[in-house]
Amino acid sequence: MVYTMGMSRSSKKRVLEPIVIDEEHGLVFESEQDLYSHFEKEIQVLEREFFGLRSTNDIEELEFGKYDKHLERLLDDPDEVWEDPSTLGEQRMFIYIRRFDKDVFHVAACYLTKSTPSFVYLHFPTTDNDLVERYRRGQMVFQRSNADVQLGAIEGDALHEGDDLAAGLFKAMLLLRSDKDIPEEEFHMFADCREETLEDADEIWRSGDTLGNVLVSFIKEFSEDDEFAYVVVTVEDAPSGSHALLFSFPTRDKGLLDRYRHGENLQAEEVVQENSH
Fold this sequence. Notes:
Layout: E1 19-22, E2 27-29, H1 32-53, H2 70-76, E3 80-84, E4 93-99, E5 105-113, E6 116-126, H3 129-134, E7 139-143, H4 146-152, H5 164-176, H6 193-199, E8 203-208, E9 214-222, E10 228-236, E11 242-251, H7 254-259, E12 264-265, E13 272-273
Parallel strand pairs: 11-13
Antiparallel strand pairs: 1-2, 3-4, 3-7, 4-5, 5-6, 8-9, 8-12, 9-10, 10-11
């Protein structure tokens, strides 16, 4: 079987709890069996297509499990996202693509809930450029862009210095945020909020990513003339406990803000700061 484990990270709950994929559209399931039964037709369509397209010289199916570690990074920080409006009939499908080294790509066909992957129909690694090209279809809705990073960079942070970790996390944030949120070209207008957020945060959250980095996010809400929140993302240095600035941004998107409220809730006095990465 192709690596089709479709349950998203957000759906990995205890067995007794319902599995919520898209509550607004009634996609709430009592069990994994119910979940896969609902999407069985779509999964079969995509599996048949995949087996028909893949080369016999590509990565062996028995080796797919070795590449499972790529999935979370792919969904959080893709190189490209394509909206495919036709393969699954009336159901829109989004195809995430990322190159992980010189030869290996990872591709995932996903159901999105509010711009976030909530179910993965199919995902697979491949070294076949022609196969990847077959999944670049429909309309491209996201592509890595250095211009996006330039708009959000502030002097003194790692994003401004071109740091890969900062750039990857910043681009992932741009993909998740609402289209109605504060435009990236206006981020610089909120730059003065960075120091105040670091010095007097309402919330500080620490969490680890899949690469072993310890990220600490500072959050402060502002409401003088216009209600918004400001988020500063840092990376923690384990030996010293200090925190280097990666990037920061303003937002009115409550859903996006909640993305940074996870892990361990810290007290402000625990944090030692540095200027940049």
